[in-house]
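Exercise (ungraded).
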Amino acid sequence: MTTVRTRLAPSPTGMMHIGTLRTALFDYFLAKQNGGKFIIRIEDTDRERLVPGAVENLLEMFEAVNITHDEGPFLCDDGTIEERGDFGPYVQSDRLDLYKKYADELVEKGFAYPCFCSSERLDEMRKAQIAIKHTTKYDRKCLSLTAEESEQKIQECEANGDTYVIRMKVPEGSTTFDDAIRGTITFDHQEVDDCILLKSDGYPTYFLAVVVDDHLMNITHVLRGEEWVSSTPKSIILFNMFGWGVPIFAHLPLILSPDKKKLSKRTGDTAVEIYFKHGYLAEALVNFIGTLGFNPSGDREIFTIDELVESFDLSKVNSGGAVLNMEKLDWMNKQYLMALSMEDVTLRATPFVAAEITDVVKRALFIERSRVSQLTEFDEALKPYLSLQAYEPSILVWKKADVADAVTQLERMVTFMETLDDTAFSAVDLLESAIKEYITHEGLQNGNVLWPLRVALSGQEKSATPFETLWVLGKETSLDRLQSAIAALKK
RNA sequence: GGCUCCAUCGUCUAACGGUUAGGACAGAGGCUUCUCAAGCCUUUAAUCGGAGUUCGAUUCUCCGUGGAGUCACCA
């Protein structure tokens, strides 16, 4: 039995795309589930669209999301990139000789041919084809050249600095393949263009490079977005021309924006990085994106990455596109946030918090984690704890009480709190039971006591419970705030 | 426009050809409660249409319709 080998083959043309993350996740699930390998290969054959730092961003995102690949480029601590694995190089621009060699092989075998047409001629040709409503494809002008004529033209090109390309000679017939997600798909070769294999700058196009590399790297499963379906016959034709085995193809459903179109920068957040900047947790993002188009069944929503690895099943991946439901991501993020320990929430929130991380801040973060849905909201949520915000004294009065009662309750609370020692302040539960006991003992109503207490402590009508707030603030600060509330009411 | 793919609540989705078509997010209502959040309960909401196969179609087939993807020296 052959080892499962999946690969993610992104082109470094910008920030890592959310769709790329989903493909990566599925690649990872499939490989890990089968004890296989997950490989990253950088497809940088388009020199014009190259974006510096794109590879670094990709690898950083992998780190952030806690997914590790087995082969490919890795980010070192010093920021440099190093390759690991036995099938390298893993960057296509380092494999140029290979593609040239295989392109030549195809020309020799008569499966490919040089083309000298100018881009101007090609443009006009296409315009004419569109005018008569035909499929736009190369008209094979250069295929009619004899071997001698081709050779002569190549000589001429080399002599005067002109360029030419190598095109695939698509045979007659049709290609049928079994998509692991979609089932049988057939394309008539009438529809398949004699696409360019080797560009005039010596770089291969995607069509050639992907086939050569997937073969040389022993890739068993090709997972990619649905937008690639129509180019699959080209790949298969090439695999056949070389006499190589064809990997299993699985075309993933597209991730859609709310208008049901392929998610683009214009219609939504496409960069994975943005989601981290917005304050989503990696676990939530993985859970959310990893179950988009795939569901492990059962009435569950929250899954760890290991559970997803275990239950993943290519044949259960949906074929329809999926709209990003941001409200659900928010909800999911909150689920993960609420499960965080004090240490963890501090760790995660620190980059989003302007204030110094003191014990008060740590406690406040811990309490507020169930009241925010994104890490970015912490900064704002922290404010009432860091300093008392100005408020209207009238809000200190509970709806079923009056000013006089509020003053009385606050004054009595001050007296009571002074009897509480450090132990009482060490836990929310202890504070709660102490105060509840006091209320019962004194024959008071919760609302009369707790409302003014809570508002005096937080300065806000809506906030965490008074017990939580006391625990965060500590005895001294709490007493100060109670005193200023009393003073404000008496004014 | 050609080709290809797709089609269950608004959204994400579940349902060996046999279910009162299930769950989740969002919405509505309620409980709990000092407020908010959380939690719990209830509720609104879907098989695109038409034929066929079958004792029985969400499920299989065909035809429509709708949507999407793709048609570069980009991937």
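Further reading is listed at the end of the chapter. For now, observe: Chain A has a mean pLDDT of 93. The longest strand of chain A covers residues 174-179.
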